[in-house]
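Input (structure):
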């Protein structure tokens, strides 16, 4: 397997998706959106605007990478650590259900094994804490695991399918998992990494790249809900479209960008499988511009 890590992430109660993360690289990103109108369907609020600021940290490293010299089959183990901290505007009244702070962290171990005839198998175990930082208990602990079979049709095209098990709503859920990845090389680059990203980039030179990207994010938290304590699982979904400029060096990449948040939805649900697919009100932040900055540091490989 190339110096890319295949990671399956369960970020909501309704699906799993695949994501590529550079190995042995530390990524730090800050995203900020100015005050946006907050529309709360659960309990109406008047003239409410909320800013949003998020810091993301990610790191992955190779545990072992063995290649059978006779068959050229790969058996690799990789670990990944990531964390995210989001800060919103403070609640204005007791009826304001938007958490002031959200924090998530995950640690995962991934095994990739070649099966032959361009097929591979990925196994993942992941544990994390997703919380509003008000109260910690077992409901804040999110555990998941998955198995997916991948067809590496070519170095630029792969697809796969499998299953994922998670406790995203305090109940064991068995869910389908999928991956579809297509990319092109050259001055103009095109990338599809469903369902996380669709992007196109232009490499101005070896040290600078401009990218237009549409990215999908979906994550669940355990939060405190005074109005309805049973509805404590917050599912957050966003869909931003942004333009990014990346400046590259030997060990550092610096990214500056901005764009428009088309979608930011918040849903509060009760735990348990029977409540998983119940219809609940969707609270939203209106579309607004956002700005982002990021830095990547590539550690020296041993």
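Output (sequence):
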């Amino acid at each position: 397997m190339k110096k890319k890590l295949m990671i399956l992430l369960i970020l909501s109660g309704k699906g799993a998706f695949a994501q590529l993360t550079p190995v042995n690289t530390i990524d730090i990103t800050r995203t900020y959106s100015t005050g946006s109108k907050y529309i709360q369907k659960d309990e109406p609020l008047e003239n409410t605007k909320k800013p949003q600021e998020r810091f993301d940290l990610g790191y992955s490293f190779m545990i072992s990478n063995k290649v059978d010299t006779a068959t050229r089959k790969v058996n690799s183990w990789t670990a990944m650590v990531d964390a995210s901290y989001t800060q919103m505007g403070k609640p204005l009244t007791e009826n304001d259900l938007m958490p002031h702070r959200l924090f998530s962290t995950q640690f995962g171990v991934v095994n990739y094994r070649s099966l032959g005839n361009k097929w591979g198998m990925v196994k993942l175990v992941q544990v994390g804490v997703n919380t509003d930082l008000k109260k910690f208990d077992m409901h804040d602990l999110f555990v998941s695991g998955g198995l997916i079979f991948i067809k590496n049709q070519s170095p630029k095209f792969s697809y796969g399918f499998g299953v994922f098990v998670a406790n995203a709503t305090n109940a064991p859920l068995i869910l389908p998992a999928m991956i579809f990845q297509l990319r092109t090389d050259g001055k103009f680059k095109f990338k599809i990494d469903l369902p996380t990203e669709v992007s196109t980039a232009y490499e101005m030179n070896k040290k600078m790249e401009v990218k237009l990207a549409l990215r999908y994010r979906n994550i669940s938290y355990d939060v405190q809900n005074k109005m309805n304590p049973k509805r404590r699982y917050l599912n957050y979904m966003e869909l931003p479209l942004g333009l990014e400029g990346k400046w590259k060096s030997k060990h550092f990449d610096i990214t500056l960008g901005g764009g428009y948040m088309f979608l930011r939805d918040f849903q509060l649900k009760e735990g348990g499988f029977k409540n998983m697919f119940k219809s609940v009100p969707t609270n939203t932040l209106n579309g607004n511009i956002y700005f982002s900055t990021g830095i990547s540091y590539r550690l020296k490989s041993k």
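Notes: The chain has one domain: 4-298. Residues 1-20 have pLDDT under 50 and may be disordered.
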